[in-house]
Design goal:
By secondary structure, the chain is of the alpha+beta class. The chain has 2 domains: 5-164, Uridine Diphospho-n-acetylenolpyruvylglucosamine Reductase, domain 3 (2-Layer Sandwich), CATH 3.30.465; 168-263, CO dehydrogenase flavoprotein, C-terminal domain (Enolase-like, domain 1, 2-Layer Sandwich), CATH 3.30.390.50. It is 34% helix and 23% strand. The protein is built from 11 helices and 12 strands. The strands form 3 sheets. Strands 4-5-8-6-7 form a 5-stranded antiparallel sheet. It has a 4-stranded antiparallel sheet with strand order 9-10-11-12, with helices on both faces. β4 (58-61) and β5 form a beta hairpin. The model has no long low-confidence stretch (mean pLDDT 94).
Amino acid sequence: MYAFTYERPTSRDQVLALARAGGKLLAGGQTLLPSMRLRLAAPEQLVDLAGVEELRGIRREGERLRVGAMVRHADVAESEEVRAAIPALAQLAAGIGDKQVRARGTLGGSLANNDPAADYPAAALALGATIHTSARDIAADDFFQGLFATALEEGELITAVSFPCPQRAAYAKFRQPASLFALIGVFVAQGADGVRVAVTGGGNGVFRHAAMEAALAANFSSEAISQVPTDEGEMSSDLHGSSAYRAHLVGVMAQRAVAQALAQG
């Protein structure tokens, strides 16, 4: 590595002051620290958020579930509150990476990083979540802006995420065997405002599948989307899978997610 300073603030105000001074925020560090080892990132100051208790916690607020930005994947997976309110979210968290990643990675860190194959962005977008920051509230539809890009401004801190509790929802993922990221992941949610379908792993970032949403709004069944195509021209292609293969997987994973949602009632 190289020389840098390390700060561990205990309050949000301290975090924001350090961030405004140019400090690099460290949530779970599952992307940042490997990037530093490879010299792809070279921050002069790390600001570790692990000591800020106000960024933790999971609680039900009426028909919404509020999860603190520094809640770890393992905590989401094991939370009785999450399992009762949005079991699909707990299942998604349980399938992120391996035990070591789940023990360190955080919800806020994942959303702020917005890896194009990450799992949480699919849940946030499909559930119509609201990302709460130190400055404002951002709808998931406005938050994700492409490859590792979000609506966050310089020095802006994710504090929590609020998920509407759906009538039913499920997430199906085809894992890339080496990284355990989603080669394709599809989160399907049916709520009071209709059906939302979010796809991760397919392109430059998470996106909603409008054609599948329309088909499922008319008939919430796997059969309803069995013939709904996904434009392979919008899919990425690499050594792990061609664009045509990924487009095919979107249909397969979406049908599996719908079947899971129906099975859960």
